[in-house]
Amino acid sequence: MNKQELKDTLDSHSKWLQSEKDGIRADLSGANLQGVNLESANLKGANLSRANLRGANLSRANLWCADLRGANLSGADLWGADYILQWQAPQGARRTCYSVNHADCVMHKLGCFWGNTEQAVEAIRDKYGNDSMYEQLLVLNAQALEVE
User: Fold this and answer.
1) 82 φ, ψ (degrees, to nearest 5)
2) More reliable by pLDDT, 12 or 66
3) Range 58-61 contact pairs with CB under 8 angstroms and sequence separation of 24 or more
4) Distance (Å, rounded) from C-alpha 127 to C-alpha 144?
5) Is 106 buried (19+), middle (13-18) or exposed (0-12) by CB count in 10 A?
6) For residue range 13-59, what is the model confidence (pLDDT) as tens digits?
7) Are residues 90 and 124 in the same domain?
8) Is the entire prediction scored with pTM above 0.85?
9) Structural domain harbouring 34
10) C-alpha distances in Å from residue 121, one per residue of 6, 90, 128, 134
């Protein structure tokens, strides 16, 4: 997808968010958006499933109800993105973790891992054992996002 196609897609999505009659919901599923600057973009409800967002700038983007299943967020800047909780991994790990609410579940980015709450808890238990502080934080973040 080139810059103009992305701009047109985001413009149409913006119109769709305003009325759902004039525009079209952004379907960026499978799109290669590696390294793209989407800072402050309104991607509310957008389909970003399986998109390559590796190294993309999504800081301050609105990702509320965006479909991020299977998206590659490695190295993406998610600082301040709406409906993403940022949290520091406990136990001395120097890693920022992200939890995001989208269409039908909460997803988590933990280092290079990206998956739903059940998958994330399983991965954490494999590494830290059952009921670790890391697991407790993840579950609390998932619950907070589910309420919103």
Assistant:
1) -65, 140
2) 12
3) none
4) 24
5) buried
6) 999 999 877 899 999 999 999 999 999 999 998 999 889 999 999 98
7) yes
8) no
9) 1-56+65-76
10) 35, 15, 10, 9
